[in-house]
Amino acid sequence: xxxxxxxxxxxxxxxxxxxxxxxxxxxxxxxxxxxxxxxxxxxxxxxxxxxxxxxxxxxxxxxxxxxxxxxxxxxxxxxxxxxxxxxxxxxxxxxxxxxxxxxxxxxxxxxxxxxxxxxxxxxxxxxxxxxxxxxxxxx
Length: 139
What we know:
Blueprint: E1 3-10, E2 13-20, E3 23-31, E4 41-50, E5 55-59, E6 66-69, H1 87-90, E7 96-103, E8 112-114, E9 119-120, E10 125-126
Parallel strand pairs: 6-8
Antiparallel strand pairs: 1-2, 2-3, 4-5, 4-7, 5-6, 7-8, 9-10
């Protein structure tokens, strides 16, 4: 009787199979939870601007380029761009920018990112560049 245990590990899961006389007897699959990208702050490089949708696509090291809306940009002077901002006025292709992931990738789309980072703590959230103090409704 020939009995073998086969192991295979790939990013995201591990598989174990028990084989007796060339027949699969048992198989186990262990999935490892993937770490969330939301909140991660990274240095990205602007790949291209799309004025038609008023957005940019930024390479942050993932499979797909991340999506950056003009509303989530900062002007060259460091102030928030606002709703009426044009992407051409905020960024240029090849520019390196510091961004924060605000939404996980889904389907065929990449992450959604923002140039306006937030740093959450236990009792407060730091929003660099935002004027004033705001109180959470959840308190």
